[in-house]
Amino acid sequence: MSWNQTRVSERLNIQYPIIQGPFGGGLSTLELLTIVSNSGGMGSYGAHILAPDDIIALVAAARQRTDKAFNINLWVSDHDAHGLDLDPASFERYLKLFKPFYDQLGVEYPDYPQNISQRFEEQVEAVIEAAPPVLSFVFGIPDKKVLQACKQRDIITMGAATTFDEARAITEAGIDIVLATGFEAGGHRVAFLKPAEQSLVGTYTLVRQIDHSLDVPLIAAGGIADARGIAAIQTAGAHAVQMGTAFLACRESGTSDEHKQVLFSDKAHNTVLSRNYTGRLARFIPDEFIEAIDKTEGLPLPFPLHSFFVAPIKAAAKAAGNAGFSSHYAGQGAPLLKHRDADALMSALVEELDCLN
Ligand SMILES: Cc1cc2nc3c(=O)[nH]c(=O)nc-3n(C[C@H](O)[C@H](O)[C@H](O)COP(=O)(O)O)c2cc1C
After folding, report:
1. pLDDT band at residue 321 using 50, 70 and 90 as cut-offs
2. CA of residue 237 to ligand 1 center, whole Å
3. Which CATH entry fits the domain spanning 1-79+117-244+338-357: 3.10.20.310, 3.20.20.70, 3.20.20.80, 3.40.190.10?
4. How far is the CA of 100 from the centre of ligand 1 (A)?
């Protein structure tokens, strides 16, 4: 069998088992999704901050641009314990902790919010109504009713695991495909059975453990950024790869040009796991903000409270091209990046994999 005909490419009905990972926080774009799906892989869109109506419009727009498989992604757990607790007194207390950052960047203080979270239950209802080809989940497993509704609507489901126990739970719940995401990955650590800090398994080991003991279509993510990485993880037992950082660095992704430049710089050799930008553990290139929050007693707050207070800082930093406060998400494979264009990245991967296999 050739490298591109696998359990996952057959299940998803795609030409190449290469998936563009979804990006939350407004960094996904329809353009990127479309290019990857139309070039034979599968494009994704991170929808966890979208309102239900926007999700329906998004799926309709994606359908107009591609008749191939594409994936919509949601976060099952949308808040941590106490992550939505915000009475006026605690708002004032937290605001005080963030004021030095707002003052440093000349950012207006946020007002007491009406709502700081989207609700997964309403979002997933919208996805089921819109029925995209694929729905992927992180931070948990949806309840049975949701999974049954997906089956009825012919939506293929994918669940993300950071440990073997999570992969087994996803398989037992009847989710179609497991995504094994190792600690090398850019973005959040999406653990749901144990705290993220206790769920740090590397991509290779996680794939081997799952392949060894579970009979399930398996996608690997984390630190895979070139054709050799894909060939290696396929040898280890993965039936497809999901790449995030390599696509984030492309012109068509929604992140800033400044972030893209940093991903191609020498700085990308060093990444850290930190809760300091959102309240949940994620991998970044270290910066001034991460260091400063480390030194601020009482922070970080739980998710999404922390994100609410950080959002104006990030927006101002992004607008000003301020590298110290811009949240440079990056996976450990960033130093391998070569391509700045999603079409060129897809063609190079396919050509090199044809040669390697
Ligand atoms: C900026 C950024 C945002 C991300 N947001 C999400 C998300 O909302 N949902 C999700 O399932 N994965 C998310 N991911 C993970 C990617 O989809 C992908 O699995 C991961 O980046 C793969 O590891 P790599 O970056 O080493 O290639 C994000 C990754 C990055 C870099």
Report:
1. confident
2. 21
3. 3.20.20.70
4. 30
